[in-house]
Amino acid sequence: MDQLATRAAPTAAARRRGFAITDYAWKWILLLPAVIVVAGLLIFPILMTLYVSFTDWHLFAYGRPIRFVGLDNWFKVLSDQSFRIPARNTIVFVLGSVPITYLVGLTVALALNNINVGRRFFRVFFLLPIMISPVAVSVVIGRMLFNENVGPINDILWRLGLPTVSWLSNPVMAMTSLILIDVWHHSAFMILILTAGVQSLPQDPYEAATVDGASDWQMFRYITFPLLVPISVTALLIRSLEAFKVVDIVKVVTGGGPGQATESITLAVYDMGVKGGDIAHGAVAAYSLFFIMAIASGALVLGTRHWVKKAS
Amino acid sequence: MRRGQRVRLTLSYAILIGWTAILFFPVYWLVITAFKTGVAVSTGPTYLPFVDFQPGLHAFREVFVSNREAATRPFINSTTTALSSSVVALFIGSMAGYSLARFRFAGPGSNGIAFLFLSQRMFPTAVLVIPFLLMYRDLELLDTRLGLSIAYTGFSVPFVVWVMRDFFLGLPVEVEESAMIDGCSRLGVLTRIVLPLAAPGLVAVFILIMIGAWNEYLFALVLTFSEAITVPLYLQIQTQTVMGTAWWNLAAISLVSVIPVVVAGLALERYITRGLTFGAVK
């Protein structure tokens, strides 16, 4: 470390003004505020949650001594329905929403790549959902469009002579509705990333394939898709990590219901730890979500490693 | 061959127009509902202004005139918390990004430290909720704009560090070096050379963290309850009250909350594209 300090001599201008902040000092002056913020506002709370999960700390029990209870909370929460159902719901939500969002993103990105007229308009318009807050999206689509009595979707179905759908009162449909809202909202991100990917594809393989008389499907199957694997994995990873954290659309659209059918882990953490005051069990649920996310992203990266390597 | 191309083109436009329609319909519904009267909603859905129903401004009047106190406060709260946290996070984060891009670090190295920053985003926000509640209760920061701003600053910093470091790495070092040889101090280099060059990156990151803070929900839900509530929380609370069935009022609030972000976002679209692809593709 000290050798670095000698490397950075004070500049002429600084010496003239009589004070000299060396480059060695600058390096730390610039970095330190961010380190302090991250340590205090992220790393410390993350560790504190871990600590809370091993105690019998309760939010509303002022002054009572906090006892260390080992893994008791962990055993209790992981075997309890109040965690297992939200955990299953969250996984179903991610497995439903992320692949559909990806398919929409890929289809639209490929379509965008085929056209010239109006391309810019579509590209900008497709960004729109990113700018609308999840709560507003949930209110408009979840509460208004999917409304079973006065919503337009059921009205249109009825006018067309089709059976109406219990969008929110049926447990399976409620989850489907949440997934559809999520797809609507986050397609923008997928389209953006995959468009960037499609645009950076090399042209040579396509020329060769055209000479060989390959069909559109063959070109997609053997050229486009394999080359898009690395960027697809990145996009899927980022989107899944976000989707696992879902809470706002659940809270606004279904409130976790009907029953517990759509309650997500984060909503369970809020209900248990914040509203119920049982922060120890809430902490376990929150950390379990982290482990689920870590396992899922590890599986995604390892599972696709072979294809990613082949593409690069 | 030509026929195949025409089919491909038609199919592409069909897909794009179809997706446009899917994106457009909720937005259209939001806009027309905000101008509806109670009758136009509760007697079954109406679709076309002036044909199906007579549009009016009474929802806006009810929300922003009759309940002005209650309705404007969340907007002020959201604006101040989003703005202040984003400015501070941009400042702190880009400084660190510059440091990591230009100086050598022993131990984990610049890459390692940058990755440590990024890895904070792996943790679900649910993990942070409980300690913030405990800390803020003791520090008396619950239900304050300051408290929420501090929390949002913390969430934004890692993203700023990560994206801005990449951005600075893409700027030529030679310009800075020659300025320093000519007697410019490090501070001078930072303010006179690096800052103007980095402006596009700073704008891109600022918009993204600003939108993030403006739309954030979970922490607003946990840390605020009356004085400092933000727009998303206010909107969610309205859905649970008597007003919850007054769709026109909800739509009016949603519309007003969405318009500033959409206008700014569309105007600065290329920065958003750049910021998001930078964060993800690199």
Shape verdict of chain A: globular
Order of helices and strands of chain A: HHHHHHHHHHHHHHH
| Name of the CATH architecture of the largest domain in chain A | Orthogonal Bundle
What is the residue-mean pLDDT of chain B, rounded to a whole number?
85
Assign a percent range to the helix content of chain B. Answer: over 70%
User: What's the gyration radius of chain B in Å?
Assistant: 24 Å
Keywords:
heterodimer, A: 312 residues, mainly alpha, MetI-like fold, 2 domains, globular, disordered N terminus, B: 282 residues, 13 helices, 78% helix, 0% strand
Can you describe this structure?
The complex is a heterodimer of chains A (312) and B (282). By secondary structure, chain A is mostly helical. Chain A has 2 domains: 51 residues; 240 residues, Orthogonal Bundle (MetI-like fold). Chain A is 73% helix and 0% strand. The radius of gyration of chain A is 26 Å and the shape is globular. The N terminus of chain A is likely disordered. Chain B is mainly α and 282 residues long. Chain B has 2 domains: 58 residues; 184 residues, MetI-like (MetI-like fold), CATH 1.10.3720.
